[in-house]
Design brief:
Elements (H helix, E strand, L loop, with lengths): L2 H18 L7 E13 L7 E11 L2 E13 L5 E14 L6 E16 L5 E18 L2 E12 L14 E16 L12 E2 L10 H17 L10 E2 L3 E2 L1 H10 L3 E2 L4 H4 L4 E3 L11 E4 L8 E7 L2 E6 L4 E6 L3 H9 E6 L2
Antiparallel strand pairs: 1-2, 1-8, 2-3, 3-4, 4-5, 5-6, 6-7, 7-8, 9-12, 10-11, 13-18, 14-15, 14-18, 15-16, 16-17
Length: 338
């Protein structure tokens, strides 16, 4: 397989993988603006570029466009452009919320450079690559990536080509704005909690329900330390808050909605007085006091177990501690689903 075929195959694979990950339940919508510095070895002179990208994502899937430019000051303080590159990519970033996470992308683009006559010449290209990002904050990332470019038709598609196959390297930062989780329009009625009939004969006594709650909490406890993953719903890869709850309840024949805002409307509403809570109740929180953006399982004794981004994964938190104060102040709902 030639280099061109490899890049084209990577482009197709990235498109398929990205689209398959774009389930509405997979995660939140997000925008990111990312300035960068780079070096492009596919253009004459290996120019250094400065530019920025703008991306839009749903969970792990994203579309990104970017532009990089080499500029210097010529005679008479005149700004001159020596080289540039522009791209449109599909991007897969399965762990783009916190910690260190990889990304993969492929796309098409244009790049230009001045020839020996000082005329700007332009060449289209395929490209693919990958990167690493570190997110010390939910809204901020440090990023690095490498891209391999191949001109359309191959490096020898024209005599004296302005561009050749080569690598481009970038480092930069990204500022991220996240919106509420995406998903289909919610019906007016509360979401249904589906129960496996064989495992959930009705009605159940309060003692039977307490025994089930203890089993559910045992299952939740089994996942202590599982890492946080934005959009995650598997113990092998990681959980976000609602994915963790859905996984734990499904293990006991209770199928609750995937998205925390829907979970906050399922089952029976319970008052905000902790005296009325029982182990197994679901607690919901809103950073802005209105829109649910976090969910946890009540473990009894003033403790919750949840997949916490700020806590780096599945953990217990005590609502009476200084850390627990945030949860007390931002509690907006309690639901009972069995």
């Amino acid at each position: 397989m030639t280099r061109i075929e490899i890049v084209r195959a990577t482009l197709i694979a990235a498109c398929v993988a990205s689209l398959s990950s774009a389930s509405p339940a997979a995660g939140q919508r997000s925008w990111a603006v990312a300035p960068f510095l780079g070096a492009n070895t596919s253009l004459p002179g290996d120019p250094s570029l400065a530019g920025a990208t703008v991306s839009y994502g749903i969970g792990a899937f994203g579309l990104r466009t970017g532009f990089g430019l080499e500029t210097w000051w010529g005679e008479g303080a005149e700004a001159r452009t020596g080289a540039w590159a522009a791209d449109l990519d599909v991007r897969l970033a399965p762990g783009n919320s916190s910690g260190v996470a990889p990304s993969f992308f492929a796309g098409i683009g244009l790049e230009g450079a001045r020839d020996v006559t000082d005329d700007m010449r332009v060449a289209p290209n395929w490209s693919a690559g990958g990167g690493l990002a570190y997110a010390p904050l939910r809204w901020f990332r440090l990023e690095s990536e490498v891209r391999y470019r191949v001109p359309f038709g191959g490096p020898a598609s024209a005599p004296d080509p302005i561009a050749s196959a080569g690598f481009e390297y970038r480092v930069g930062v990204a500022v991220v704005v996240r919106n509420a989780r995406s998903g289909p329009a919610r019906p007016a009625a509360a979401p249904v909690v589906r129960r496996d009939p064989a495992r959930w004969p009705t009605p159940r006594t309060s003692d039977e329900r307490a025994a089930v709650a203890a089993d559910i909490l045992d299952t939740a406890d089994d996942h202590l330390g599982t890492r946080y993953l934005w959009g995650g719903s598997s113990p092998s890869t990681g959980f976000d808050c609602s994915g963790f709850l859905q996984h734990v309840f499904a293990a006991h024949g209770l199928h609750i909605p995937r998205v925390s805002q829907d979970q906050a409307r399922a089952g029976q509403s319970i008052g905000s007085d902790p005296a009325g809570w029982v182990p197994g109740d679901l607690l919901f929180f809103a950073s802005n006091g209105r829109t649910v953006d976090h969910a946890a399982l009540y473990a009894g004794g003033g403790r919750i177990i949840h997949s916490s981004e700020s806590g780096s994964g599945v953990r217990y938190d005590d609502l009476s501690t200084p850390r627990g104060e945030w949860y007390r102040r931002h509690l907006v709902g309690v639901r009972r689903v069995f």
